[in-house]
Amino acid sequence: MxxxxxxxxxxxxxxxxxxxxxxxALKGALSDLGISREKLVLVSGIGCSGKIPHFVKVxxxxxxxxxxxxxxxxxxxxxxxxKVLVHGGDGDxxxxxxxxxxxxxxxxxxxxxxxxxxGVYGLTKGQASPTLQLGRKTKSLAFPNINSAVNPIxxxxxxxxxxxxxSYAYDIEHLKACLKQGISHGGxxxxxxxxxxxxxxxxxxxxxxxxxxxxLKDWDPVVKDDEDAVRKAQGIIGLESGEKKALGTILxxxxxxxxGKRIASxxxxxxxxxxxxxxxxxxxxxxxxxxxxxxxxxxxx
Amino acid sequence: MGSCKGCKWWRPDYFFDNLGECEKMxxxxxxxxxxxxxxxxxxETEFCWCRDCRVTxxxxxxxxxxxxxxxxxxxxxxxxxxxxxxxD
Amino acid sequence: xRMNTRARGTKTKMGxxxxxxGAQGGGIETAGLLAVKALAMHGLEVFADREYHxxxxxxxxxxxxxxSEERIRSIxxxxxxxxxxxxxxxATHYKDLKPGGVLIHDAAxxxxxxxxxxxxxxxxxxxxxxxxxxxxxxxTVREFDKWLERxxxxxxxxxxxxxxxxxxxxxxxxxxxxxxxxxxxxxLRAAGMPFATILEAVDALFMEKVEAKELNKAVANxxxxxxxxxxxxxxxxxxxxxxxxxxxxKKMLVAGNDAVAIGKLIGGLRLQTYYPITPAADESFVIxxxxxxxDLKGExxxxxxxxxxxxxxxxxxxxIGGALTGVRAAxxxxxxxxxLMVEGIGWAGMNEVPVVITYYQRGGPSTGLPTRHSQxxxxxxxxxxxGEFSRIVLAxxxxxxxxxxxIKCMNLxxxxxxxxxxxxxxxxxxxVTTINPPVFGKIERGKLTEKGAWDYRRFAFDGDPVSPRxxxxxxxxxxxxxxxxxxxxxSEDPENRRKMYEKRMAKREKILKEAPxxxxxxxxxxxNFEDLLVTWGVTTGAAVDSLxxxxxxxxxxxxxxxxxxxxxxxxxxxxxxxxxxxxxxxEANYIGQLAELIGWNTGFRIKNRILxxxxxxxxxxxxxxxxxxxxxxxxKIVLMGGE
Lengths: 301, 88, 643
What we know:
The structure holds 3 protein chains of 3 kinds. Chain A is α/β, with parallel strands linked by helices. Chain A has helices spanning 18-33, 52-55, 68-78, 90-96, 98-107, 152-159, 172-184, 206-212, 226-241, 259-266, 291-294, and strands at 40-44, 60-62, 83-89, 111-117, 120-121, 127-128, 163-168, 189-194, 213-215, 245-252, 281-282, 285-286. Chain A has 2 domains: 3-264, Thiamin diphosphate (ThDP)-binding fold, Pyr/PP domains (Rossmann fold); 273-298, no CATH class. In chain A, helix 2 links the parallel strand 1 and strand 2 (60-62). The mean pLDDT of chain A is 95. In chain C, helix 2 (28-41) packs parallel to helix 7, helix 10 (256-266) packs parallel to helix 15 and helix 19 packs across helix 22 (620-631). The radius of gyration of chain C is 26 Å and the shape is globular. Chains in contact: A-B, A-C.
């Protein structure tokens, strides 16, 4: 693997943190994809997972709690030539930022959202996150969790995501393959990564993952037509209703237009000159806009 | 003959890394404790912990840790979470 | 019905001041716009306030329109004319009519009860009933009209319904449109406007909507014929508005929302994000509708995009994201939305991102008065966000300024790499006025780095608080809301903290040092003033319009409009404050936020405050009257005018 992907900043995650696995797989995926460093942007939320952009040697935007998706959407819409990834925790993307996650599915921008799912809020001492199951009591909880867990894959289906996958932080090859697939997918993707938190989550341990997950076999994630889409959705509900979590690529739907195409359908210049490629001045003065031609209805005849 | 520090079963404490624990035996063991009969010198797991860099790294990045002290893992106290403060 | 000749005696200059009211959603908006267009096409300067409820259909709404030969920046009571499309308008506004003024309504309303008004707010209705009882007026519109006439007003019940059904012979049944056009036509004819100009205004208003245009013309014709029959034996105070004046160059007619949109587009806006909110959303509509910017050869030279976000948090974050790619990005909102944006603005402050937030104040707190005016968010705009960071808050006081400032804000944002809040109010947002087309100015993109510079440090310490900026896609760079080092990586080191903190904060001094005086504050009136009225935002207009009267009434009086609210131009403002014998603040909030801000910064406590927080504009007549009361010894005055 190219060593070039380390920024040189010390990754301050706890020993044994699943983030090290995601970090490793991500660097591997970026190497394999051969995208120029400057054309990538890692956008992240808050918490342990939010720090990941600082450790990778590509442009990074470490944003606000729950808000990585809107930042990423603004970046991608303004400069569609950039490859944009979102990294956030389960609390970040499925709790405080859930509304943005849903809105992103509706828009279908070419952005992959990597959900670092460890079931807890690590950096604030292990409170229950939206993916912690009802009745579970992790280390720092005074009482068992009284909220039901949300399922990001089912949420992804309901919101219109066109790429859905689940992987495990410590299966580097599998995770790398999912990342590559998700980054290359031409639409909105969710990659849920099950990630042990050795400090706080004494339930989702490596052992637990081994016993409670399985790799998808004979599952074709690619949606062929409308009828197939319904079948797939029903199939996915079936998958997700099982006791064990399926790992693998769950859905690829290439039929829906990506956000960039939708913008271009309104703004005809978008493909040729997206906002980041447009000039806004000539020799230090405003462009010679013909006001009467551009704004006819505001002129008194 | 080596010491615990060079054994695949020994896990240094994350904070006090001159001390550690053996995966196979109970009790605290210092890094320089003489090797015992189960000593195995080959430190090779998918993820190792580098004491010099204080970081978990993947086997594919081994070259970055040439000459460093690394181990098959590290350990913290079971109740370590009780010592932490909120950080974000 | 009897005539009162006093209507003609009071006017000194050509002009017109009237209200046209009706139920919201019933075409009243178009009626106001048609009148405003016609007056502007007649060569007059126009200023029109639109007042409406937070409601789609059914509640009372009106336009208060003022036209004059000279530039006009405010509304004023009482009015010359009222066009009432329903009973509620009569019941709401009859007191606004000057002696000799004319009330026009459909004759079909005559037998309707005046107090049977389900949409009217119960407090308002109670007040109305009490007035009717006190004056023993009776309960029908007919009786009410008689009472008005006894009190020196002229009432013209015009057979609109009859004319529309019998004379106009409409091909399609567009009753609401027809009624509004009919009323506007009659109002303007009664004020002396040539009929040809009204027809031209119909053409201009409906442009390519052929069916609506023809219908409106048919209605206007029918009403005009009816009016000519009527006016054969009546003097309705015609020629209030005078002869058509030849245009002195091109004029534009814009609301504040339009003005800012135009300014932003001239200023190079390429990404606008927003979440629907009153009174800001129209700005984004205008940008969407004019997203192809043409040059003189008809070629497209720019094409900004507009994204409707899922909430205001997303709107600000998307705009910041766009700005990081080098795009001139902005969002627009009002109080509730701004509250949600605050965390994002802090991030922009921490990361030195040039982003513009157009902030139209409305009545708060909470949902408050969604459609009504307020200037109560000044201190919020200045102080919003936790922690300390440099920002610019620039408050426009007129539509012309709104355009220029929209351009300026984008320059300032990039020049200083700070979030810029362009502070406006509902008054400017919704009032429609004639303006001169803007003059294109400079576009300053600020310090940029050479592309491909290796070892780029986004937040380099190089003596200047503004570091060269690079865009995502060009260089390696990091951003974080955490305190960071020159590269943009998290750092809690105390020395770095101090340096980075001071780098961010030092921009305040730099901004103040480099800002031209006219961006800080503007003085109107006598430079050797004794009394100084300090004001800001749309209220400036009412103050400036009343200046000649103030100068007659008081000693030497001047008005200081403060524009740059943050960083606050202490020295510049102090210069004026310290010269005054008496300082009076004039603003639409409860505590006198500008007065407080001046107090914090200069140590000078402004005792005299004229305030208004009913959600209605401060009017020219209110400024004059309250100034007299201040001269009479009152310290604080709370204004109540307008419905």
